[in-house]
Structure formats: structure tokens, C-alpha cells
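Hi team,

Below is the intake form for Polysaccharide biosynthesis protein C-terminal domain-containing protein from Methanosarcina horonobensis HB-1 = JCM 15518. Please confirm the fields before the structure is written into the shared record.

FORM ID: S-0412
PROTEIN: Polysaccharide biosynthesis protein C-terminal domain-containing protein
ORGANISM: Methanosarcina horonobensis HB-1 = JCM 15518
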Amino acid sequence: MIAWILGLTTFVLMARVLGPSQFGLFTLIISYVTLVDGVVNFQSWQAMIKYGGDALENKNINRFKGVVKFCTLIDVLTAIVGTITAILIVSIIGSWLSWNNDTVNMATFYSLTILFNLSGTPTGVLRLFNKFRLFAIIHIITATVKLTGIAIIFYLNIDLWTVISLYITTTIIGQILLFSLGWRELQIQGYTGVFKVPLKEINSLNPGIFNFVLTTNLTGSVGLGRKEVDTLIIGGIAGAEGAGLYKVAKQLASIPAMCSDSLYQSIYPELSKLWAKKEILAFKKLIIRSGLIAGASATFIWIGFIMFGSWAIQTFFGSSYVAAQSLTIMYMLAMVIAIFSFPLQPAMLSIGKPKISFWIQLVATIIYLITLKWLLSAIGIIGAGIAAIILYALCSISMAIVEIIIIEKMLKAVKKSSFSVDQNYSEA
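The structure came back. Fields below:
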């Protein structure tokens, strides 16, 4: 919560000091680098939790070390490839977004942060050992440094280059802290000599790990399609100022997400354990209970914004951002839908069906981006909010239907297996 408040304060100050147009340019630079990083840099933390958690459950130490080594090598390789890719194609993207040379140089400079993104494996390790408090500490440290820097920039009225430099510094600090704490935790838990473990049997010991890593990366890339590509599309159609207004709307709309963020960090490992133990009823109840708690809280926040949103935007961001109010209301409604259904994604991964999740999100995202482009041209920036509602409704309904079918089948199988065991015991 502290890190979130610091982050929101930083965001508000930055939006005010830069104004919609410059803030929009900053947003587009961040979106571009985040997109490349997300597409190329695999989501190794998910494999770490699934296969590393299974190894810990079975007390197979060498298998666990092998998963750590495998995921770390993926982190290093993809960080290098991601950095090179971002630098090579920045001119092409810059030309499409009508960036001048100075903006292209800023984006190139910011691309260097990808090289330090080795946080996938440490993230998975810290989550496996329930060290969620360390994430909060890292976020507070980086958010404090960022807020201090932005406050100085706000006071001195310094340009966008300084803001970019500040974000590069704080991003790298955060990545180094996370990497260090993750590996420190491995040492504390007694898992030393990770790189001495051979990887020859990584696939046989962890069936489907290559496919899982590839699929979760593709799924994450699809997710970026609705988180970053949409910003770039808006920048291409509505210009930098439109992107700036959209970023403010998305940031405000993400406020309800604090109802699910902390739950998401803990629910995936717990769901994985319940499914592995075949405690299907508890698995089902955890999905429903978590979704209802987070969704109900998010709904109250959304209603509050409808009542006081206009005042909040004018007071904190200034009158130049008032045009974002209606868009924020629509986008926040989309987020409320997503929060009600947030347990469905980690549940699908725990079940071991990442491909289904990928295809659902891919189809929904393609529909979203097509709808977004059409609505932007037809009715303006408000169309982005409507497109977001369509996206999250499609994803939520589709995932829910598939998971209901899978869970009900598994419940029947577990009951049948239990009945057979009881019957054999009686006969004996």
C-alpha cells in the first residue's frame, strides 16, 4: 500500500510537470520498451513456481536446482536478445509514431533497462518461499527514490530527458535488488551449487517444461497486446496527447486492481499445491472466494469514482486532463470485470492448461485491437474504454466456461477414485 501511494503520487506529479503532450511521449517510450521486453523476455517465474514448486513438494533437491538453473539461463539470454531487438527496431516504431530524433534517442537509452531484467527466477523463488514482504520492501525503496527525483524535477521544471534518466536509474535499482534478494533466499534455504547441476535431464524430470515456458511467454505477450500495443495504437491515431490522456485513465482505472494484486501473488502457488494434491473442492472454493472478495471491493471503488472522479482529476492532475474522466469510468468498469475473474488465469496455469489460456487471450486480444482501432476512428478516445469492456468480458466468460468443465470432470474423477479405494478396502 505504501509503495502504491508513493507510485501514484509520483505519477500525478509527473503528469502535471510534463503536461498531456510530453507525458504522452513519455508513456509511448515506456510502452514501446515494455512491449519488446515482455515479448522477448520469457515469463520464467511461472515455470519456477510450477516446476520448482512440484520439485519442492516431492523433496527433490537436484530437480529444484535444475529448474532454477534453467530459468536463470532463460532470463540472461532473453535479456540480451531483448535489449538488442529494442535498439534495432526503435527507428521503425519512431517513424510510425512521428517521433523526432531526440525522442528516438530517449527510447534507445531507455531500452538498456531490458538488459538488467533478470528478475524472473528470483521472483519465482521469493514467491515459492512466501517472501512477499520483500517485494513490498523493493517497491517502497524504488518508489521513494522515484518520488524524490520527480519532486525535484517538479520544483526545478526540468525536461523529459531528466525524467527518462530517473526512470532508468530506479528501474535498474529495482531489478538489482530483486535479483540479489532472490539469490540470497536460495542461499538461506540451503540451495547452493545451482549451476553445478546438469541440465541434460531437465525435460524428462520436468515433463513439458519447454512447452510451458514457450506457451506462458506467448500468453504474456498477448497480455501485452492489450496493455502496451493499445497505447501505441492510440499514440499513432490520437497523437501523443491522446496517449497521455489514455495513460491517466488507465492509471486511475488500475486503482481497483490493488484489491487483487496482493491476492494474485499468493493465490497461484496455493492453487498449484491444491491441484497437485487433488484437493479439487478446495481449489474451486478458493477461486470463487478470491474473485468475489476482490471484485466486490473493486466495485465500491468504481462507484466512488463515478461520484467524485471529475473533482479528483481536476484537483490532482489539473484541468488539462479533465477529458480523461469519461474514459476512466469506462476503463475502470472493464477492470472491475477483470478483477472479479482474476483467479481464472492462475487457476488455468495450475491445472496445466496454459495453451487454452493462450488461445482465449489471443482471440480476445485480436478482437480488442481491431475493435479499438475502429472505435477510436468512429467515436474518439472514449472508444478505448468500450473496447476494454469487450476484451475483459470475452476473456472472463470464456475462461470461466472452460474451467468449470475441467474442474467438474476432475471432481467426478476424484470421487470415482475415492469410491474405488473404499470398495477395495471393504472387500479386503
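SUMMARY LINE: The chain has a mean pLDDT of 88.

Thanks, M.
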